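Need a sequence for this fold. Nothing fancy.
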């Protein structure tokens, strides 16, 4: 079978950086090809070449075996190539139909009036092809994240895209929504679409993909049929080494209780939450999207205020009116949305790490750059942040290194409790292993860790105890090793409403 889209010998050079070198990629009609690599491997750059944002310095692009030039995103669009990103730009205040046809509205009559009845009809027909129940007249802001993904895919189908690039499409979806997404991909395959699937989740890759292509440091390292490679071999090709221990959990002695939460309630997000946490312990929180885990962590870290209940830290009752109160007391939180909430990404690494310490490092309002630099250097090196300089802007780093900067920033405050909300979301296998290793080092030094994760293997592999939440309630608690994946998922789904 001839590839629908083929990239051969693609090289892209930026000043001082060879982002891609001799990269090969082939996409076949009705097949899914997984593009695999660590953050910084060149996946995003390659997608930008495919969609006309960047032009390659060397190599060629063939569409239906004919060499083509894609000088602009519009040219790729007309060719039938579209990318659906994790945060694809849609318009909250517009209807589903308007989002599907934005930039390509249909007109009628001499005066070229917008033909809304026809656009609604076509939008409904496209959604029916995907077998999703969405009202085309509904305002986008009323839809779930999963439904927004469906609208983005419908938008691609509206201009008869033949090549569909799915970039981390399931990152914000619940398990149920992920299964629905799998069905959508299967329908796209049945329509003969050539699909490029980018994901860090190996279970999804082996579930959906027919072929794979692996990049490392901008270089093509291999491709083939997905049924001819093992996960271990794939990881080795990605990182250039074997990841010997996926969850390097250290069994260390647990110290005294550092945090007690008693009957904590919020008017709308959670109720009757009680648990304790000891020094040297990792406490995992698991639940489906909307279970209230993140909202609970926001209350513990001073972002929101609970309506009742107690937070006791080192034996002292605490009330946090703002995050600064929690930080001063010894509780810090690495948020799920690291780019929006965890860092000022336009600022350098050094300034981000030193930000919570400005008053201490710069008494009397006098700036001491050397002190800030020394602090940043200590924690950036400790966390093995990969950068040319600590003056490098955080936004230029890979997702894994951005996460390390945010963790370093809060570790520099010397907390008693660190909350990690989805600590490995959207980062590659090598960076995940580094974060897991560092978590083990933290608890071995006596720090208490709360980890919120939607990845069940991570929770089961790293936590000493696991608390399961469902619709704002604690519904189960397990010691490590006492629960199976089935019992945890059952509790998270609401099938089990009592603690183990």
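Here you go.
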């Amino acid at each position: 079978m001839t590839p629908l889209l083929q990239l051969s010998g693609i090289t892209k050079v930026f000043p001082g950086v060879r982002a891609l070198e001799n990269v090969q990629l082939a996409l076949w009609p009705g097949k899914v090809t997984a593009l695999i690599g660590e953050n910084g491997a060149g996946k995003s750059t390659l997608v930008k070449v495919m969609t006309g944002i960047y032009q390659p310095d060397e190599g060629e692009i063939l569409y239906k075996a004919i060499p083509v030039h894609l000088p602009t995103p519009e040219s790729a669009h007309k060719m039938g190539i579209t990318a659906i990103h994790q945060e694809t730009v849609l318009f909250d205040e517009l209807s589903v139909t308007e989002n599907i046809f934005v930039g390509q509205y249909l007109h009628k009559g001499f005066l070229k009036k917008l033909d809304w009845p026809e656009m609604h009809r076509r939008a409904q027909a496209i959604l029916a092809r995907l077998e999703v129940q969405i009202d085309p007249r509904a305002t986008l802001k009323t839809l779930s994240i999963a439904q927004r993904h469906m609208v983005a895919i419908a938008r691609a189908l509206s201009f008869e895209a033949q090549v569909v690039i799915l970039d981390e499409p399931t990152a914000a979806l619940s398990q149920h929504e992920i299964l629905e997404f799998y069905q959508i991909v299967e329908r796209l395959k049945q329509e003969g679409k050539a699909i490029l699937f980018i994901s860090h989740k190996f279970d999804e890759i082996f579930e959906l993909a027919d072929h794979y292509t692996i990049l490392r440091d901008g270089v093509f390292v291999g491709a083939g049929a997905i049924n001819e490679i093992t996960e271990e071999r794939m990881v080795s090709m990605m990182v250039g080494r074997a990841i010997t221990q996926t969850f390097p959990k250290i069994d260390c002695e647990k110290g005294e209780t550092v945090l007690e939460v008693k009957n904590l309630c919020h008017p709308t997000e959670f109720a009757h939450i009680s648990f304790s946490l000891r020094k040297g312990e990792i406490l995992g929180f698991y639940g489906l999207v909307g279970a209230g885990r993140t909202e609970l962590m926001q209350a513990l870290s001073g972002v929101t205020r609970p309506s009742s209940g107690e937070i006791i830290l080192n034996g002292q009752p605490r009330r946090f009116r703002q995050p600064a109160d929690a930080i001063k007391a010894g509780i810090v939180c690495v948020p799920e949305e690291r780019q929006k909430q965890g860092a000022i990404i336009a600022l350098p690494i050094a300034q981000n790490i030193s930000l919570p310490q400005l008053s201490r490092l710069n008494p009397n309002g006098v700036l001491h750059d050397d002190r800030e630099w020394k602090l940043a250097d200590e924690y950036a090196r400790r966390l093995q942040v990969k950068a040319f300089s600590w003056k490098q802007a955080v936004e230029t780093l890979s997702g894994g290194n951005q996460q390390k900067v945010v963790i370093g920033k809060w570790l520099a405050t010397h907390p008693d409790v660190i909350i990690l909300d989805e600590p490995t979301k959207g980062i590659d296998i090598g960076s995940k292993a580094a974060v897991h290793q560092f978590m083990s080092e933290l608890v071995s030094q006596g720090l208490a860790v709360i980890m919120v994760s939607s990845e069940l293997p991570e929770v089961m592999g790293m936590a000493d105890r696991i608390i399961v939440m469902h619709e704002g309630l604690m519904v189960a608690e397990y010691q490590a090793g006492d629960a199976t994946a089935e019992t945890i998922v059952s509790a998270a789904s609401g099938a089990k409403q009592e603690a183990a």
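For context: The mean pLDDT is 87.
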